[in-house]
Amino acid sequence: MTDNHFTGFSLIELLVSILLFSIVMLGLVEFQTVLTSTIWQAKKRHTAQTMAFEILDRYPDTQVINLPAQWNFKIMTTRYHQCQIVKVIIWIPSAEEISQQRWFCRL
């Protein structure tokens, strides 16, 4: 009698396991890419919100506002009896619009 007990993996098993590992790794890389992009977008929105509040805090002296490159802002005012509604709109490069408003009243 011959003893044919070989241990290890066959070539087919090895190729299938490498294929499955590759598919899982590509999925994880894609997930990491989307996650990183989402985090950067959230960071930009947060920075824009902070800048909008800073502009409102400095109102009416808004001549010295330093926004990041390619960001624009606009200030709109609306009178309402003894008060004034000041709205700040900031446009960020990802074509998003962030706005904040505040009431200023004379007592």
From TrEMBL:
Keyword Membrane: yes
Keyword Membrane: yes
Span of domain Prepilin peptidase dependent protein C-like C-terminal: 32-106
Annotated keywords: Membrane, Transmembrane, Transmembrane helix
Residue spans crossing the bilayer: 6-29
InterPro entries: N_methyl_site, PpdC-like_C
NCBIfam families: IV_pilin_GFxxxE
Protein name: Prepilin-type N-terminal cleavage/methylation domain-containing protein
Lineage, top ranks: Bacteria, Pseudomonadati, Pseudomonadota, Gammaproteobacteria, Orbales
